[in-house]
Amino acid sequence: MAGAIATFALLLALPASSLAATAAPTMLTFPVQKVGTTSGVQTVKITVTGVLSNSIDGYTITGAAPGDYSVSPGPSETFPFGVGGGSKDYTVTFKPAAVGARTATLTFSTNEMPVAITGSPNPTVMLSGTGTQPAVTLNPASPSLAFGNQETGTPSAGQFFQLTNSGNGPLSVSSIVLAGTDAGDFSVGSCMTAPFTLQPGKSCLVGAVFKPTGSGAKSAQIVVTDDAAGSPRTIPLSGTGFVPDPGPPVAITAPKANEKLRRTKKVRKRGKLVRRKVALTFRGSASDPGGLARVELALLNAKSSGGKCTFFDGKRKTKTDSCAALKFFNAKVEGKTFSYVLPAKATVASGKYILFARAVNAKGVTTRTPVFVRLRILS
């Protein structure tokens, strides 16, 4: 009886609660994490102190996204301590279920033994993280690369599409490969060699070249495999190989290789020598037993690189665009000869250029491998 009275007296002498409980740290912030994947582990320590025996009696997770966080040990496990208290480490991981900010609150229950006088402190830990998810946008939206007619054994001009990471997390591209019956008639390349990673908002140019090994229709696919929804992505390729008709090849007779062409000439005006812009004429010869329909020319700046080309638009000026958009324009054909006059008013900067020429027969088939000469245009 005397002992019970003494214990009762001690309890009456205590404050409303002798238990103190703290969490360290009080906030866990996780790095951005891809939706559906689990983060690394972070640790929080719960410490309880008091003049009586005490315990940690579990925890709850509440808030906007409680299901995104996992805590160990489990929520109902209790950890009793003797007089003076003790501490326990809990590990937390983050597995976002959706993109954007994901928050929750981790609340621990503590208690004094044999009873809590007026209630026990419940330390809390704020949990925060951001869910990310890559996404793929193709340009054009549904690319299909059609190469048309191509002479066997000769490579076509490249055709391209753009792959963009339009999501808010890194995009991992694991492979870009060719597949299909005639995969050997095509080749594929991209801005980087797979595997590679595209950060949000970044793009990669993917292109193909058609080099038929035989005549007839050919088809294949580019298969892009990545870690975004919709993978793998299949881009159709098509083309027709043909064996060229016999006959003289296309020949560019003017200008000659490496010739320097001056866009201006000196003229006398009011007793003074001044420079005046002049037209340039390109000439050549071509023929085809099936009937020569036209000769197409293209004027390309020799310093074009990086998937971007500077070329004459066939009208009045040069433009910079994707190399796949290289502009061919028609020359004037008379019998077996052709010519094209670059107008004096055309805006073509000084520099090194490549003049391409290709013949097209009455069936619309490019009958000769395009030929070219390198030249220099001077102001």
Q: Can you characterise this structure?
A:
The protein is mainly beta. The chain has three domains: about 130 residues, Immunoglobulins (Immunoglobulin-like, Sandwich); about 110 residues, Sandwich (Immunoglobulin-like); about 130 residues, Immunoglobulin-like. Strands 2, 3, 5, 7, 9 and 10 form a six-stranded mixed sheet that branches. Strands 12-19-18-14-16 form a five-stranded mixed sheet, with no helix packed on it. Strands 21-32-31-25-28 form a five-stranded mixed sheet, with no helix packed on it. A hairpin with a 2-residue loop joins strand 22 and strand 23. The longest helix is centred in the first third of the chain and has 12 residues. The radius of gyration is 38 Å and the shape is elongated. The protein starts with a helix and ends with a strand. The N terminus is likely disordered.
